[in-house]
Amino acid sequence: MKKIPVIIDCDPGHDDMMALVLAYGSGKLDIRAVTTVAGNNTIANTTQNALNVLHYIGADGIPVAMGYQDPMVRSHKEQMELLAASRKKMRPQAAAPATGITGAAVHGKTGMDGFDFPESNPKTPADLRSVEMMAKVLRESQEPITLIATGPLTNLGFLIRLYPHLLSKIQRISLMGGTSEFVLTRQFMEFNTFVDPEATKIVFESGIPITMYGYDVTYRVLFNQSTIDRLRALGNNTGNMVADLLSYFRSSHNRSLSRLNLGDTAPIHDACAVAGVIDPSVVTDVRKMHVDINVGGSLLDGATVCDYQGALESLPKNVDVVYNMDTERFLTMLVEAAGACK
Ligand code: BDR
Ligand code: CA
Q1: Residue 322: helix, strand or coil by DSSP?
Q2: pLDDT tens-place string over residues 242-283
Q3: What is the topology classification, in CATH, of domain 4-340?
Q4: pTM above 0.90, yes or no
Q5: How far does the centroid of ligand 1 lie from the alpha carbon of residue 201, in Å?
Q6: CA of 150 to the centre of ligand 1 (A)
């Protein structure tokens, strides 16, 4: 069967790592490029993490293009400080110290703590930067490309502004971000949409079809110890690497969000946005609605305001919001993909 052509825009990040393993190991996607953005860590580290993962799983042929450190109009450092301050307000005891630069509370100092990749990695970033790489792939493609976005939407915002004539080549954007009903990071907030609210607004108002995998679904589709055991039982390098990283992520995530009482389970947010592209039937509940993005300079910046009751009849239903997936099928996809890698 013909592979689906995609670009993956990410900020690895443990769950971005899982998204890359799923995308590559599934054998169903033609990954034309991986582009990076700062989010879970600095752009230098998220790019290095992407290179490490791709090399380790045997995907050296996929070009990696480095993107932006700062959001379109804000500074990454300021957004992180704001995030830390608002977390402190919500949960003074649980709040991690503000590092000023990273999502270190969950993903560690490197953005992907918990596994030591071999130091020698011949893979380096492409000469082109992320947005140029995206434009090149779109320009040269005979068929429409699906964009999978698992980090802040800075690169996509710039792509839309700089290359409007190429946008008809985008089939759909499948993104991890936002939330309709869950209230987590800050009020109504999710990390990716919070980091670059202006880019998020540009993307959501672009008219490009969007499927949104926000906290509504990612906190329903959880892995547990038996998933880690299945990954280890694969016996290959990738299975062990993924098992180590998911174990690290589960403990740091659950420590920093202890009020969620997740026990031995945790989400793998970003992999959801890949799974639905590989096999749309894994999505069991999706609803089309108008989604507006808040950027007004308040505590709610980056909020995805979802009209899930259909009150705003005159506004376009611009987003397919995913609410549920088949958890068993999803986890099996992850394990099988890891098993198909090196
Ligand atoms: C999102 O933020 C990051 O921590 C994860 O990689 C994911 O993309 C979840 O809010
Ligand atoms: Ca991410």
Answers
A1: strand
A2: 999 999 999 999 998 888 899 999 999 999 999 999 999 999
A3: Inosine-uridine Nucleoside N-ribohydrolase; Chain A (3.90.245)
A4: yes
A5: 18
A6: 7
